[in-house]
From TrEMBL:
Gene3D superfamilies: Peptidase S8/S53 domain (3.40.50.200). This is subtilisin. Keywords: Hydrolase, Protease, Serine protease, Signal. Belongs to the peptidase S8 family. PROSITE patterns: SUBTILASE, SUBTILASE_ASP, SUBTILASE_HIS, SUBTILASE_SER. One of its GO terms (molecular function) is serine-type endopeptidase activity. One of its GO terms (biological process) is proteolysis. It comes from the Eukaryota. It is an enzyme of class 3 (hydrolase). Residues 130-360 form the Peptidase S8/S53 domain. Coiled coil: none annotated.
Length: 390
């Protein structure tokens, strides 16, 4: 039996982690070098010389394409780094969390996105399946051996070493929504595992940045392959480094889809949901209502199914679970982006969004009209994801 019902405390309180750990990592910084800087010489000068910002406590955590991540930095050393002639800028590294919440109504996501109104008709009709498109799942990893993936998962990048895999389940669930054979939107898409979370529900932005470096390099090496990034993660507060990374990806012709977040708050005050060049996705339930946990506001571009979505899981090669959150809504949109790109492989991110927006439908809400003392239907400003014209 594919679907089994699981309950996880860690999943149900993910939104609490997101609110609590929206802080900088003490003593850890991302140091971006100027383009003409000699990286080897600069590293030796900054972190080996007793006359520089170095000390026994300072260590290089990771080397990025345009800089390095350093930890154990004091306030005085931070000032020295910012004043160095080879350094373009120094920014605090910060915590990032998975976006997910647990609920338990019936599954309905694929059924909803292929029709422009309720009620559901118990079918998912599609003309494309994502063949030839890569979707990069920037997450906890993917259980590649799951039968729903049919061998279409590639371990692209792991911040933690040479292997990928998933010990938490979040990334596997997200990947299934994007491209699982029975539970996915784009059923033949190539799923690229970009593992930026280890065994903890927290990671650093520098891990995300390293993942973006890998993906952008992949696009440069394979410019004709259509690519999509899914980010079902987030940080409370506006963090400009997300915008820098996303804008670089979009400039490289990669579609970026992000979850709006699960704080029931303004998406414009959260990251990466505030970033204009990303497609920001909120969550709806099976009545087309905004999920009570979903972030909202002007920065949400689309709403997609995100309550009690059945997808692949890590407890075996045929296992599944129901999860809820904007983490589940975003991969519906990433999957639809893959469908558009299969049909139009040369499209830019702007063209994908224009087509997606044109295909979307405005949600209808049932509201109380106090003047006449009855309920009435009203068209809202919320755009609902649709695939019926692809």
């Amino acid at each position: 039996m594919f679907y089994q019902q699981f309950f996880f405390l860690a999943t149900s309180i993910a939104f609490l982690f997101q609110a609590t750990y929206a802080t900088d990592i003490p003593g850890q910084y991302i140091v971006y070098y100027k383009e003409d800087a000699d990286r080897i010489a600069t590293n030796q000068r900054l972190f080996s010389s007793s006359e520089s910002a170095s000390s026994e406590s300072v260590r290089v955590v990771y080397e990025l394409e345009k800089g390095i991540v350093v930890a154990g930095v004091t306030d005085e050393q931070h000032q020295l780094l910012m004043q160095d002639k080879a350094v373009e800028r120094v920014v605090p590294d910060f915590y990032v969390t998975i976006d997910a919440v647990q609920r338990n109504p019936p599954n309905w996501g694929l059924d909803r996105i292929d029709q422009n109104s309720l009620p559901l008709n118990q079918t998912y009709i599609f003309n494309y399946n994502g063949t030839g498109v890569r979707v990069y799942i920037v997450d906890t990893g993917i259980r590649a051996s799951h039968t729903n993936f049919e061998g279409r998962v590639t371990c692209g990048f792991s911040y933690f070493g040479s292997t990928c895999g998933d010990t938490q389940g979040h990334g596997t669930h997200v990947a299934g929504i994007v491209g699982g054979l029975t539970v996915g939107v784009a059923k033949k898409v190539q799923l690229m595992d970009v593992k930026v979370f280890g065994n903890d529900r927290l990671t650093s932005f520098s891990a995300i940045r390293a993942g973006f470096d890998y993906i952008i390099a992949e696009k440069r090496a394979n410019p004709t392959i259509p690519m999509v990034i899914n980010l079902s993660l987030g940080t409370v507060g506006v963090k400009p480094e997300y915008e820098v990374a996303i804008n670089e990806a979009v400039a490289a012709n990669i579609v970026v889809v992000v979850a709006a977040g699960n704080n029931a708050s303004d998406s414009c005050q959260n990251s990466p949901s505030y970033v204009k060049n990303a497609i920001t996705v909120g969550a709806t339930d099976e009545l087309d209502l905004r999920a009570n946990f979903s972030n909202y506001g002007a920065c949400v571009d689309l709403y997609a199914p995100g309550v009690s979505i059945v997808s692949t899981y890590i407890y075996g090669d045929t296992s599944g679970a129901r999860l809820s959150g904007t983490s589940m809504a975003a991969p519906h949109v990433a999957g639809v982006a893959a469908l558009f790109l299969e049909r139009n492989p040369t499209w830019t991110p702007a063209q994908v969004w224009t087509a997606m927006k044109a295909d979307a439908r405005r949600a209808i809400a049932l509201i109380w009209w106090p003047v006449r003392q009855f309920l009435k239907f009203r068209t809202t400003t919320r755009l609902l994801l649709q695939t019926d014209t692809i």
